[in-house]
């Protein structure tokens, strides 16, 4: 295992020839030599281990396979090697039911996401909380990753177990560019979670005025109410987000003015 962490493929090859167990797992972490080589980004060692028959399916104590480790690290070259050895490796799930694609999206490894989407059956696969790769990319403000996932037919309105959508994640985090990408992909700006909270309410809670503007421009209802009858303005007020409060008040005034003009034109 120590040799796997080095950058000496020849040393690993020699150890294998002497009868070293390629698939020996650490008694505590359950990691194999392949896990370690992948984590250390030792491309030559990974190549040798795969050539000599190291298992890609063995998982560590978190049920992470070497491909999960590669997805977190972002190495396209190592990921290619692992997928070439076992195309089905992309389907493996951790203890939390997370796929390599989800982990790559969570870290914003866009090139890796492009590679992995070609090797999965369902880009909308969910983890134990019902989150997809798109949820994680949106939550962590990786706009380019979000765009790639949408190109690969990720469901922009997919709800997790709490009925939270990727747009809600982006709005709550104040991620304006991601919000814009999702809105342009026709994400539902009026979707609501289990408590009736909409993306605009998430933005009001976070106090991000740029996101609030994006959502209002996309047609979000300014005076919508949650299940507890709380409006975006009231959320902003309760969280002390003064700039958001002023923006939402101004938007309400403009909406009232527009409504009055329409009524006047009809009379």
TrEMBL record:
<protein>
    <submittedName>
        <fullName>Ankyrin repeat protein, putative</fullName>
    </submittedName>
</protein>
<feature type="repeat" description="ANK">
    <location>
        <begin position="62"/>
        <end position="94"/>
    </location>
</feature>
<dbReference type="InterPro" id="IPR050889">
    <property type="entry name" value="Dendritic_Spine_Reg/Scaffold"/>
</dbReference>
<feature type="repeat" description="ANK">
    <location>
        <begin position="96"/>
        <end position="128"/>
    </location>
</feature>
<keyword id="KW-0040">ANK repeat</keyword>
<feature type="repeat" description="ANK">
    <location>
        <begin position="195"/>
        <end position="227"/>
    </location>
</feature>
<feature type="repeat" description="ANK">
    <location>
        <begin position="129"/>
        <end position="161"/>
    </location>
</feature>
<feature type="repeat" description="ANK">
    <location>
        <begin position="29"/>
        <end position="61"/>
    </location>
</feature>
<feature type="repeat" description="ANK">
    <location>
        <begin position="162"/>
        <end position="194"/>
    </location>
</feature>
<dbReference type="InterPro" id="IPR002110">
    <property type="entry name" value="Ankyrin_rpt"/>
</dbReference>
<dbReference type="InterPro" id="IPR036770">
    <property type="entry name" value="Ankyrin_rpt-contain_sf"/>
</dbReference>
<dbReference type="Pfam" id="PF12796">
    <property type="entry name" value="Ank_2"/>
</dbReference>
<keyword id="KW-0677">Repeat</keyword>
């Amino acid at each position: 295992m120590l040799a796997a962490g080095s950058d000496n493929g020849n040393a690993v090859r020699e150890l294998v020839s002497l009868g070293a167990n390629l698939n020996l797992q650490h008694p505590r972490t359950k990691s194999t030599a392949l896990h370690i080589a992948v984590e250390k980004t030792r491309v030559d060692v990974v190549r040798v281990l795969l050539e000599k028959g190291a298992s890609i399916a063995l998982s560590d104590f978190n049920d992470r396979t070497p491909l999960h480790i590669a997805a977190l690290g972002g190495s396209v070259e190592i990921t290619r090697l692992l997928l070439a050895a076992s195309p089905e490796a992309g389907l493996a799930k951790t203890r939390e039911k997370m796929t390599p694609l989800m982990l790559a999206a969570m870290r914003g490894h866009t090139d890796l996401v492009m590679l992995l989407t070609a090797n999965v059956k369902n880009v909308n696969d969910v983890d134990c909380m019902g989150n997809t790769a798109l949820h994680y990319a949106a939550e962590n403000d990786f706009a380019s990753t979000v765009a790639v996932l949408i190109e690969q037919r990720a469901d922009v309105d997919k709800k997790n177990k709490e009925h939270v959508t990727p747009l809600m994640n982006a709005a709550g985090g104040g991620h304006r560019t991601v919000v814009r990408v999702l809105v342009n992909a026709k994400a539902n700006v009026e979707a609501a979670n289990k408590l009736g909270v909409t993306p605009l309410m998430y933005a009001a809670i976070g106090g991000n005025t740029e996101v609030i503007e994006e959502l209002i421009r996309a047609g979000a209802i300014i005076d919508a109410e949650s299940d507890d009858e709380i409006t975006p303005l009231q959320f902003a007020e309760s969280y002390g987000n003064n700039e958001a409060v002023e923006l939402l008040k101004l938007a309400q005034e403009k909406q009232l003015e527009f409504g009055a003009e329409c009524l006047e034109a009809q009379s």
